[in-house]
Design a protein that fits this description.
Bound molecules: 2'-deoxy-thymidine-beta-L-rhamnose
Number of helices: 15
Shape: globular
Helix content: 40-55%
Order of helices and strands: EHEHEEEHEHEEHHEHEHEHEHEHHHHH
Largest sheet: 8 strands, mixed
Length: 357
């Protein structure tokens, strides 16, 4: 099967991250020829080893990476996946409509745990002017959605990493015996309150910050040095290395969509810094996700949701939430693993999408 994936990078790394993960799974696990059309290969190159954004088209891990504009003069493959509702070039849309047999045209949507998603998943949407349907495919966390992307060897790799975990942390000058928190969040996250909570708790802790959190936390450290807080600073790593940071940690602060999914699959307790939207739409999404995990978290759910709301909405009680978080960690760890088992039972999004096709 031949597959085209279209990626319109809006901001940050999530758009490229989701598209690259899907392209790699189709190419490496299924052996399908995949073309990835992207309008910002520079961003993709930050999380993809071996990609020179100035030398397109190029082949990386079996995926043909093209500049978006190349689509204007290309023929569609058998399956065309546009992501997050990005509009394809008009000339390409016309070619999809005219081709025989007609390619299957999928719009892979954003991940949401809201109820309405189940009603829309896999529905056709007729093109307003061309004689062709586009099908909505929703990632999700319930049986009536497309599930999440899970590589076939993910858990084997995680298990194998366990014996390298200590060395991994030591390579960042961290003591592997200490409680370790991974921090990948938006610049607007309540890092000052979090830092204060860590200082007040007074227990020794490792922080593994990424992106904006690195500078913000370093500045807080300069202003209020604290002997109990150790930093393991690292640069951007290829996506294939990203999970190691999650696997090495005891609690995770993650954001957006792809790192949020990876945190769930790691089976570690996590705090989701959700992508901020107007009219607090993101809080509704957070609460909808909370309702999905509530049965799995049981007694520790209140702490999970209070912590997540204080991270995304009001940070007033973050110190108290952090205290409870640390106290209930064993319960939450168990819950996170049950939740991961549930996600695995839904099957991988790539397989579900192929079955649908
Ligand atoms: O970067 P994000 O915030 O991405 C997004 C975007 O804002 C996007 O517009 C929005 O649609 C989406 O969120 C909901 O967070 P996310 O989704 O977690 O993506 C980060 C990606 O970057 C993920 O694939 C992991 C990858 N990554 C690496 O590969 N190496 C690294 O060192 C880091 C820090 C990240």
């Amino acid at each position: 099967m031949t597959i085209d994936i279209f990626c319109d990078v809006i901001d940050n790394f999530g758009d490229a991250g989701v598209c690259w993960r899907l392209a790699s799974i189709f190419s490496c696990e299924h052996g399908f020829p995949v073309k990835l059309y992207i309008n910002d290969a520079e961003t993709l190159s930050k999380i993809t080893a071996g990609l020179d954004p100035k030398k397109l088209p190029c082949l990386v891990q079996g995926v043909e990476i093209h500049d978006w504009k190349d689509a204007e003069t290309s023929e569609p493959s058998q399956v065309v996946i546009e992501t997050f509702g990005c509009r394809l070039p008009i000339a390409f849309e016309h070619k999809i409509a005219a081709a025989r047999p007609q390619p299957i045209w999928i719009n892979l949507e954003y991940l949401s745990a809201e109820d309405w998603v189940e009603g829309y998943h896999s529905l056709p949407s007729p093109h307003p002017s061309l004689n062709v349907n586009k099908y909505y495919f929703f990632p999700g966390v319930t049986k009536k959605t497309g599930g999440l992307m899970i590589e076939k060897d993910l858990f084997i790799r995680q298990e194998r990493f366990a014996k390298d975990r200590n060395k991994f942390l030591e390579s960042f000058n961290l003591d592997p015996a200490l409680f370790t928190v991974f921090v990948f969040c938006y610049p607007g996250a309540p890092l000052a309150e979090f830092y204060k909570a860590l200082r007040q708790r007074g227990k020794e802790i490792n922080l593994l910050p990424k992106g904006a959190a690195t500078d913000i936390l370093s500045k807080l450290y300069e202003e209020h040095p604290s002997r109990n807080i150790q930093f393991g600073v690292s640069k951007m790593v290829p996506q294939s290395e990203f999970d190691k940071f999650l696997w090495a940690s005891d609690s995770l602060i993650i954001r957006g969509e792809d790192s949020f999914v990876r945190a769930q699959l790691s089976g570690k307790p996590f705090i989701w810094n959700i992508y901020p939207q107007t009219e607090e739409t993101h809080i509704k999404k957070l609460e909808a996700f909370g309702e999905r995990i509530r049965p799995y978290y049981g007694e520790s759910y209140q702490t999970w949701i209070d912590m997540n709301l204080s991270w995304n909405k009001s940070s007033r009680d973050l110190t108290c939430c952090w205290e409870r978080w640390c106290h209930e960690l064993p319960l939450m760890k168990e819950a996170a693993q049950h939740w991961r088992d549930h996600l695995v039972s839904l099957g991988s999004l790539a397989d579900n999408l192929l079955s649908f096709v």
